[in-house]
Amino acid sequence: NRNQLGAELGFGTDILQVPWHSLDGSPAVEPQMGAWRFDWIAPEIAARRRAGLDLIGRLGFTPEWAGTEAMWNVKMQAWYGNSTVMPARAAYWEEYVLRTVERFTNDITTWVVWERPDSGALNASAEDFAGQLLEVASRAAKEANPKARLISGGVTRENIEKYLVALSETGV
Questions:
Q1: Which residue stretches of the chain are H helix?
Q2: Measuring CA to CA, how many Å separate 110 from each of 55, 57, 68?
Q3: What is the pLDDT of residue 145?
Q4: Distance CA 78, CA 65 (A)
Q5: Nearest to 140 by CA among 37, 46, 132, 65
Q6: Total Cβ atoms within 10 A of residue 15
Q7: pTM value?
Q8: Is the model more confident about 77 or about 132?
Q9: Does residue 24 sit in helix, strand or coil?
Q10: What's the whole-number mean pLDDT along residues 15-25?
């Protein structure tokens, strides 16, 4: 039992991605627009909690249908897009954060917003990240769970000073 072993080795916390996106048929909490599915990940969360692990949830990555590059392929009956870009609409991101934080209010209170927000793939400045992802996520998370805490995803070593200074200048 991986979770029990981790707890026995002294690990008290585990970070778990709660994926909004689905690549290659992998599970996601919103595999199609408006179709919310938490049943597949709830047992994973419960197993970690039973082992005595606290959880930090990781929010992020855009479903192909919600990205700025989203295209519906009629022949394949599937969306094509990029999961590492900003969501095309803040309302999509807000709904994902709200529903996810609300669903796991009793299990997870700390949430990482977007791993490696400084990556070239996201193609967002610190100001864009703060305003379009962090601010929206903060509002939605606090509505779902007033005790929720949000933290930024990790920043790469080569960008850390510049990116963190820029984030602090935005008021983050």
A1: 2-8, 42-50, 90-103, 126-128, 135-144, 160-169
A2: 8, 6, 28
A3: 98
A4: 9
A5: 132
A6: 11
A7: 0.90
A8: 132
A9: coil
A10: 87
At residue 98, what is the residue type?
L
Q: In the structure encoding, which two tokens stand for residue 89, read together?
A: 């609409």
- At residue 39, what is the residue type? D
d(CA 131, CA 149): 17
Chain centroid to CA 76: 27
CB neighbour list of residue 84: distance below 8 Å, 6 or more residues apart: 61, 62, 119, 121, 122
Task: List, for residues 143-163, the tens digit of each pLDDT value.
Answer: 999 999 999 888 888 888 988
Distance between start and end Cα atoms, the chain: 39
Residue with tokens 């192909």: 64
Closest among 48, 55, 153, 155 to 100, alpha carbons compared: 55
Least confident of 57-61, 85-89, 99-103: 85-89
Structure tokens, 26: 């992998």
Q: Which of 134, 128, 126, 129 is nearest to 164 (CA)?
A: 126
Tokens (6 digits) for 172: 């983050």
